[in-house]
Amino acid sequence: MTLGFLITTNEHSTIISLHEQLIKKLGCYQQDLEIISSFLNCKVKRINKSSSLWYLLKKLTLSQVYEKKDHILLKKLSLRALKSCQIHFANYYANNYLRWIITMNQLLGISNDFLMKELRKLCHLILSDSSLWSTFCFLIGGSNEKHFEFVIFELSQVTNSNFQFDNTNKVDYQNIIIDEFKWLINVQCHYLSPFKLLIQSCESIEILQLIKLKSQDIKFDEKLRIEIIKLIDFQISILQTKSTT
Fold first, then answer.
1. Residue 10 scores a pLDDT above 60
2. 147-190 pLDDT per residue, tens
3. Rounded distance, CA 33 to CA 38, Å?
4. Span 124-146, mean pLDDT?
């Protein structure tokens, strides 16, 4: 009954609340998850970029994926979110959902290798999408403690589940920065954003020095090369300051 309203008035809080009450009464969470995630893959911006529907998807993901430890469903939802990014350029809400999944996986000790592979693939197709590259580099850089705290606080507001957090086995994706930097140069990427985001995600002075040397290979755009070197030097200075404090 409420599905039609979710399409036409998807930012109406009363409709969302009524829908959740109905799903709770019927117990059809799996079916609802399938439908809502499909809605968010449509080509209508009003639906695809609905903050309320994406928030509802988060809550369904918690109950049907993380509480049940359904990693197959997790991959399916990740792919749907990536498809949503592909359908709508610079899709803030889809990327925010992906960053939330990345952080949840890190907190629960779940591998992000699948997302790394798929994000990398899509970023290579859409060089100009800074939102997508930001999510990719968010995974490379890893969540900081403040971000973990925010997600944990958010969880306390929407679920009573007692998740066992374990982010001690963090995977280091930093070496991917070198390969990505080389790849961007080889395809003659003229967009600054991918380079900038990779540099800002780097936590190693050694890697920054290596990509600074590699930036000499940028023969196709002198202005871009100069900007990249400035960004690398600035990131090095930030890391040096951190190491002395």
1. no
2. 788 888 888 877 777 787 776 667 789 999 999 999 999 999 99
3. 8
4. 91
More confident residue, 109 or 9: 109
* Residues 166, 67 share a domain: yes
**DSSP H helical segments within the chain, as ranges?**
3-8, 13-26, 29-39, 45-48, 51-61, 71-87, 92-108, 113-125, 130-141, 145-158, 176-186, 192-201, 205-214, 222-244
CA distance 102 to 134: 13
Q: How far apart are CA 219 and CA 242, in angstroms?
A: 33
Q: What pLDDT is recorded for position 3?
A: 63
Last residue of a domain, one of 144, 171, 198: 171
Statement to judge: residues 62 and 97 lie in one domain: yes
The length of the chain is 245
- pTM of structure: 0.92
Instruction: Tell me the C-alpha distance between 161 and 163, whole Å.
Output: 6
Is the pLDDT reported for residue 220 higher than 90? Answer: yes
* Residue 178 CA to its chain's centroid (Å): 20
Q: Give the separation between CA 36 and CA 96, rounded to whole angstroms.
A: 16
> Measuring CA to CA, which residue among 61, 107, 103 is closest to residue 80?
61
What is the C-alpha separation between 218 and 226, in angstroms, rounded? Answer: 10
* Residue 66 · residue 110 · CB < 8 Å: no
